[in-house]
Amino acid sequence: MQPKGAPDETVAGAARSGRGxxxxxxxxxxxxxxxxxxxxSATGWLNSKPLGSxxxxxxxxxxxxxxLTCINWLRTEPYVRAWSQAYRNDGLIVIGVHTPxxxxxxxxxxxxxxxxxxxxxxxxxxxxDYAIWSAFDNHYWPALYFADADGVIRDHHFGEGRYxxxxxxxxxxxxxxxxxxxxxxxxxxxxADWDSLGTPETYLGYGRGENFASPDGGTFDExxxxxxxxxxxxxxxxxxxxxxIRRESVVLDHAGxxxxxxxxxxxxxxVLSARARDxxxxxxxxxxxxxxxxxxxDVDEDGNGLLEDGRLYQLVRQDRKVxxxxxxxxxxxxxxxAYVFTFG
Length: 344
What we know:
Blueprint: E1 13-14, E2 21-22, E3 44-46, H1 53-56, E4 60-66, H2 71-87, E5 92-98, H3 108-117, E6 124-126, H4 131-136, E7 140-141, E8 143-147, E9 153-158, H5 163-174, E10 202-203, E11 223-226, E12 237-245, E13 250-252, E14 258-263, E15 267-274, E16 280-286, E17 304-307, E18 311-317, E19 325-331, E20 336-343
């Protein structure tokens, strides 16, 4: 994917210091300009009319860059949502900026659905052209920028974590001091089990893909049959069935194809979309068996799930002690598109 305004080569890997997705491999993250850039280049707005300098004047502003499939953003969203609700009467305005990573994330209805599912009631600027992203010189999802009532950016944070200091920044800029909000993420929003996380985010399209283990390797932009290896190496993935490996995803061409991954983490997620108009049923297996109590929120105990919308699907949440497992997801109809595995 090369959206307007994006770098020629994009990589979203773990930001080790902040646990977020970094967009550019070659350029280090840079601070935004001293003053808050405007939002006039937004391609649309949700939950609000367009906001400009007149509407923001005299308010403390928190800007949150996000994209709907990013697990790092999903795990920070409970905090941003809580801050918006706790401090709006004190003068805080939170603005979410949705800058898409994958091509299907440009669809406004998917962003609208994500705001409803995440109960986001603060303004969201749509940034399909990357103009706001570029104006901030931003490189991460999620990224937080804290501006004072004069529109001067006083702090920023990239990725997950640092929640208490961030809330203290908000209080300092607002001139208030009280007990911090209590936040507990649930489902996909739950904090990762960092001590048991041994597998990195892994992209499947050839633009950023790595650690592919099907015999004879992959063929790009051409449909062909793949097989799983006899033994899948740790932190590697493979395909079985008829697939086309495209730049940002792998696309299933015939029913019954599967993707397998050998991982070590409590949670396993997969970003999926569908070319088919009808929902695509799928089945998840852990070490060849139904996941049982280790099923994710998008799968039942028997391993059954349904691909309906383009988003992140939680396939596994290990119920007891975390250990090395092999995940295999099989799609019963063609048209499934798989983009990236993420873990937590």
